[in-house]
Amino acid sequence: MKQKKIKPIGGLALLFFLAMSVGCSAIRTMTYSPITATVSPTLHPTIRVEQAISPPHALLVTATKPGRLEFVNVDLPLPLGTAAPKVVGVKVCYQIEASNPGSTYITQTRLTEMTTPNEAPIMVDDPTDQTALGPTCYVVDNFSVSPCGSVVLGLGVVFGSTDDKILIGGITLMFGQ
Questions:
Q1: Is residue 84 part of a domain?
Q2: Is CB count within 10 Å lower at the N or C end of the chain?
Q3: Which of these, 79, 88, 92, lies nearest to 26 by C-alpha position?
Q4: Domain membership flag for residue 56
């Protein structure tokens, strides 16, 4: 009796099949690179945002003038699909290098939604100061929102010295029912 050989499914075909059968609702988290960040427009911008040299995939935030609250904004594209997922949490990984510990920190974690160019409603606004020198991560997960537009993570930063640095690493959105 001759045995029939079964051909293995190619890697891309298998991934496509799994993506089609699982759908958007099975996605529980999405992790983003912070190097796509932009600084929010202000009349007197006092921070500089650039890709870090080491590690090269982190975002380096420094100040040209200490003491002023500024926002670093990172676009967080949502997964494609017919049903928009509910966002139930955000995790931010960071490291602070400060000459005076506690004087440089992340003071606000904000999620906004952009649809029309004339408004960006705030969906989540957590005022908890993140002062750990790190590297470390924190989670804000006391909410559930269903965005209809693009989602932007805003990190409010305060610098105690122009020599201080904040490195932003991976950013993860968590999805739920």
A1: yes
A2: N
A3: 79
A4: yes
